[in-house]
Amino acid sequence: MSLIDGNAIAARIIAELTAEVAALPGRRPCLALVRVGEDPASVSYVRKKEQTAAAIGVDSRIILPAVTITQGELFTLIDDLNADPGVDGILVQSPLPKHLDEVAVFRRVAPHKDVDGFNTLNLGKVAQEDDTGFVSCTPAGIMELLARSGVDLKGKHVVVLGRSLIVGKPIALLALQKRAGANGTVTICHSGTSNLPAITRQADVLIAAIGRPDFVTADMIKPGVVVIDVGINRVADATKKSGYRLTGDVHFASVAPLAAQITPVPGGVGPMTVAMLMKNTVKARRASSAE
Amino acid sequence: MSLIDGNAIAARIIAELTAEVAALPGRRPCLALVRVGEDPASVSYVRKKEQTAAAIGVDSRIILPAVTITQGELFTLIDDLNADPGVDGILVQSPLPKHLDEVAVFRRVAPHKDVDGFNTLNLGKVAQEDDTGFVSCTPAGIMELLARSGVDLKGKHVVVLGRSLIVGKPIALLALQKRAGANGTVTICHSGTSNLPAITRQADVLIAAIGRPDFVTADMIKPGVVVIDVGINRVADATKKSGYRLTGDVHFASVAPLAAQITPVPGGVGPMTVAMLMKNTVKARRASSAE
Fold it and tell me: Cα dihedral sign for A227, A153, A94, A269?
């Protein structure tokens, strides 16, 4: 078994982007990070994005509306960022408070600044295999992890667990694309799937994104499989200072010995998401320079 | 084996729409049909759409640019239709001559008039399970055929042959949706799939959309499968006056006896496509009235 080291691969991408940004003419790229309210996980994610941006030479602008902001007010805020020529990328940190319509908010972000890839138009472009858009960061990061780990999906059976808009559906569309590295046969399973183990056991590449700790067990896989674990679940653990530990959707201890390659949690897909956000931001800056 | 009669089901939808249109307040719905050049199949398709529109009380406006039209000129023509308050739906007949960028042309059609459902935004909405958009007519017709034939995809394994933008990808996204009638586990196969028969034999519902005559044979299916044949292939046949006969992607003679339900070609999916175009046009009219 060989471990897919997301931290190391993300660090290489960050280093590449740092060199790329240093060579960019004109002003530095600028990423607007909008965080509504004080959800502790969101606070930590936005801080991490801000730090990574600083490290590669991308400016960030942190905008912290109160949790009571209305949808109309948030739209106005986004419209201002859309119109601001000094802003290349806009990220509205998910999850939003329940009184806000998340899909509508993501759709409000101008497609050419939508570095999170959640705008409906950019999702459609993934289906169309149109590279002018932005691919959302987690699925883009998975494709990059696979490519940099020597995994070519051509002729492989890729089984995706989960049909979320943020991971399951876009990664299925990406794995299916008619291009080098992709070209997989793709099965999408979910909570309504009958006889799931019979399907997951067919996977040459298994991508788990369901948010259920340790759900995929050794009896559900074929020896030699490549496993990408997208889950980041908090499980109570009294031995930890924080009171919890992080675990993926895959029962690592039993699955890893059978897998050809596997991502750990943490340190697998997670770090890639931030790296791909930066890659999208630099892409947005290049496109705005070209205008 | 029971035959899924697309002609009969489409006729029922047409009858429903006729009643619906008769009850609509204000002016009749209006569909603009743009056909570039004189491709014989396109001439026949556009005529059929015009006739069906007339039958249900939908006005149509036929626009026939010369085959030499430039992309810029076609964009201007589409912009004028987008801006015309008397036009509810716009269809640009595919295929376009090779000097025109089809995806860009479809993207130019205003999303709220895109009754063909080929605009990138409407494709993204299918992935988002957002009903405010338009689903492209062939996949929408397949879901309607299944629903009206008592086939519930819940817990079923749906195998889609083909990953086209017009059929394969949107029908996969529809079959996967978390809603009544859908909720299928979906596998998408294509020209790069290894060991295809082993996968198609798992299908509870098999949807063939690859454009290869008689490709799916009896050894590739499981007895009791529901087969939806989207292929419309012309095969040379000296016994026919036209010199050809139409055949699907499925070898009907050998597959039909094993199937629980199956669509014929012609008379299966084909008639549904025009019916769903009309349904989308009426939906567009209702939305424009509501403005």
Answer: positive
Residues 158-197 of B with CB under 8 A from A: 163, 165, 169-170, 172-173, 176, 178, 183-190, 192-194
Q: Which of A88, A116, A229, A249 is catalytic?
A: A116
Q: Would you say the ipTM is above 0.85? A: yes
Q: Give the confidence band of B140 by pLDDT, cuts at 50, 70, 90.
A: very high
Please give, rounded to a whole number of angstroms, the shortest distance from the CA of A154 to a CA of chain B. Answer: 7
Active site (annotated) includes residue A116 = yes
| Fold exhibited by the domain B137-270 | Rossmann fold (3.40.50)
User: Which structure tokens are listed for A186?
Assistant: 């793709």
The full set of domain ranges for chain A reads 25-111, 137-270
Within this chain, domains B25-111 and B137-270 share the same CATH topology: yes
Angle at A128 between CA A125 and CA A131, to 5 degrees: 55
Q: Do residue A186 and residue B188 have CB atoms under 8 angstroms apart? A: yes
CATH number for the domain running over B25-111: 3.40.50.10860
Q: CB–CB of B91/B52 below 8 Å?
A: no
Q: How does pLDDT run across A149-176, given as a tens digit for each residue?
A: 999 999 999 999 999 999 999 999 999 9
For residue B285, pLDDT beyond 80: yes
